[in-house]
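Technical note accompanying the year-one report. For the benefit of new consortium partners, we illustrate the data format agreed upon in the data management plan: each record pairs a sequence with a structure-token string. No post-processing was applied to the example shown here.
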Amino acid sequence: MFEFREYDATFETPNVVVDGAANSATVLTLSHWPGAPTPEVLQRDLSAAIAFAYLEHPVEAASALVVTNNHYDQDGLVSVLALVEPDRAQAHRDLLIDLAAAGDFGIYRDRRAARASMVIARWSDGGLGYTDTLDRVIDLVNDPEPWRADWEAEDAHLAESEAAILDGRVTIDEDVSLDLAIVRVLDPALDAQSHRFAHETIGGVHPMALHNATQRFRLLVDQGGRVMFIDRYETWVQYQSRAVLPRVDLRPLARELSRDDVEWRAGDPNELTPQCSPVGRSRRTFEEIVDAFRDALRASPEHAARRR
């Protein structure tokens, strides 16, 4: 069993870092972050799953009795809990990992995990951290009802987004070869209240609804002429469950599109979830935009190298 300490207080204390970057005194890293030296036998999609794997297959952590993390989120919270209260955490392992997935990847199996993720996002926005919330996590994920005020509005938007996908107000076409989902949001009302919610929406659609509906890790979304391409967070971490296509630098495409259209901007591919979108509404048809992105993705050196 480990003791949690805040990251800044561990620079001279042997520690285990979960779901983040090592510091000068870290002796073991249990993280899915890119480049993290997590032991190969423990590597999983989520840091929370790595922490649980460590409980089952403990590796040498030298004299470390302290666990820490350099940021606060759902995956980190579950990872810390697994090491601080291993027996209690193990008893709720699957639900806790589902909570971590809802926070990091925007996917869920049990609605309680989705709602708990919403509450933790509110806690984070309110300035709460590990010491404030570690003892609440298991109660929260098993029964979010006492925290209804923190999840009810966002949960209603999630339900409406899921209904919109089912009834065709949101359509999803997949290009498996490019790991690309082409999403058309046909109901402008979905975006009416998106600013209220802790999880950022994608074209007015709750990300948990969209990510649960497609396994593609690249999304190209059109909502009434507002277009956004996004690489999902799964493509940033050391994802294990399946092969992931390398990210493509879309800044050259943004410059090309800007020549005879409104300005387009693209993020650095090393960002957590880089996006590419026009400033305002593009004058191109969505079909033309889809073709341009498909061409850019297929022609990229990253795609060519992957095919060899």
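Partners are asked to follow this layout when depositing records. The chain has two domains: 3-142, 159-307.
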